[in-house]
Amino acid sequence: MTETPRELPLSGLTVVSVEQAVAAPFATRQLADLGARIIKVERPGGGDFARRYDTTVHGESSYFVWLNRSKESMTLDLKSDRGREILERLLAGADVFVQNLAPGATRRMGLGADVLAERFPALIPCSISGYGSSGPWADRKAYDLLVQCQTGLVSLTGTPREPARVGISIADIAAGMYAYSGILTALYTRAVTGVARAVEVSLFEALAEWMSQPSYYTRHGGTQPPRVGTQHATIAPYGAYTTADGKDVLFSIQNEREWTALCEQFLLRPDLVTDPRFATGSDRVAHRRELNEIVAERFGRSDSGEVMRLLDASGIANAGVNDVEDFLAHPVLSARNRWTDIGIPGGTTVPALLPPVDLAGSDARMGAVPAVGEHTETILSELGYDGPEIDRLRSDHVT
Description:
- The chain is about 40% helix and about 15% strand.
- The protein is α/β, with parallel strands linked by helices.
- A hairpin with a 5-residue loop joins strand 7 and strand 8 (about 250).
- The two termini are about 15 Å apart.
- It has 18 helices and 11 strands.
- The protein has 2 domains: about 15-210 and about 335-395, Rossmann fold (3-Layer(aba) Sandwich), CATH 3.40.50; about 240-320, 2-Layer Sandwich (formyl-coa transferase, domain 3).
- The strands form 3 sheets. A 6-stranded parallel β-sheet has the order 3-2-1-4-5-6, sandwiched between helices. The protein has a 3-stranded antiparallel β-sheet with strand order 7-8-9, covered by helices on one side. The chain has a two-stranded antiparallel ribbon with strand order 10-11.
């Protein structure tokens, strides 16, 4: 079992998770960071299919390394009676049960939220699905990019010529974040009232929440925000422009004070402050093309360092447009000691980012990423299985 310092906020809590891919593992990894014991139930043999998304991290998947530190891996064939029996014995001693299996899978196994509430009244079940447990799409599979398409996010992302997916698994991440906060809320509710409430999150509804601003804009404005690349769809000037040394710098104007400073101190065009084409934020958006020509011409006369220095002096937020290599070397991450090493299968260590929330007096647990089934024998022993029984379960491919 992974050692958990007692001072961590969720020490003593046990989470059993029948999880795969991104959304559920992201939720449970954050609980693990806070000290919860996460028993990750995987398929015998290959385990979570996210283990095979790629092999870039010393033979391990970049997704899996990101999402599964500090967990214990147990393999179980949940299609077998004995596998389900072992799972139920695990649930009898657990605080939380998380699953993001295919639609209807837990119901078919007799592990729906209503059944669990009767059998394990103190257990908090958390279900993560594509489109919810009811409604016309309840039985439909959903993956991140499909949900990006269904919520309209892809139609907002990209250039005027071509839409694009968001470059990270944003629907999965949104669902994982809401599952995590929902579980914490349910744990608090149980502690205060003694009642364990089920948590349900769907990828579609999680990302739908994040689509609320463009939804309001579209419903009440009559047209959706346009795709404008690195420009902001509803604020101008707000975007990236190319400097004389070929590097892109992004800056943002948020209010009239900043607009005046930009005109007077950077563009050296005080006349633009009162130009009727640019008098208000809406005017600047309506005349984006003319404004972009003015800004682009000024950017083209200075290198990126000078542009950022002048914008800083004018009190205008700006940043160079980094690639991932630039991000990895970011001075904020190094100066604030945000990197620490974690173990991965095979004995290698790799740098990992600390969780973004710092809790005074408590350091996040940054345990190793488990190999498939690494903790199966230990967990079975804890459940009361002896050596010969464990051997039989293994030889019968139950574990």
